[in-house]
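Quick start: load a record and inspect it. Here is DUF1571 domain-containing protein:
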Amino acid sequence: MTYPFRLLAAASLLLTAAAAAPPDKITTEQLIARLSSAIDKLQTLRCTVKANERLATNSYQQVRTQMKLTFAPQRVYLRNHKGIEVLWVQGQNDGDAWVYPNSFPYVTLNLDPNGSVMRKNQHHSILDAGYGVIADLIRAAPQRSDAYRRSFRYAGDTTVQGRPCYLLRSDFPQFKYVSYKPEKPETPAQVADRFGCGEFRVLERNKLSIGESIPAGRTLQVPNGYGRRTIVCVDQKLMLPLAVSVWDDKGLFESFEFQNVVANQPIPAAEFSKEYKEYKF
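Running the structure step on this input writes:
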């Protein structure tokens, strides 16, 4: 595979490009508002995502995934470069996803999308596929400190995949791990939501398991924001992200590149059925 190296190179280029002074053409507030609105108005999405995520071993996992999504109701179909297929449809299969592992014994599994099997070595749940994580980063939440969200600034323009993009950049040098003691039992997901830091690092730093009940009074080490530096490249026509890179205290934490983005075009309901002729479920 060669694309992991391109992803790392692209992240470095974004970091360099974002240092340029922005032309006076759009304000930070306008950019964030238009980005949020475009994500909120998504009804369907097709795209290919190249993900590069740092694991607990400090190595990187690179995955290329084809996605089809609808949002009301929420339906998710994914197929990665290893031939693994995932289908999740709101209100079906008792909340589980159908998973075809493309390996022995070649049978379809029913798995909890937020369970330990599907979340192993994954920064995010399949239910966050698309732009859910990005939307969460730029929106205020009453239970969180607003410092990280307010650190985003319009930082100029760049080109991604031959398309003009706005650069939205967060510099948050005060990023660090802070001590936190739950006043009542909480799960890692609830702690992550409280701090807006993402669940993966809460699990990693505190040696917790997905869904584990953390007792009241236990001291945790939790990031006080999502990253030390975050760069989002927003397509100037679609107003949707084409690339996202996040750095923390250890370096590059994760990067995502969204290719062949098709938004709000009808997707036949049959393509969210496990019996669809092109799938192997």
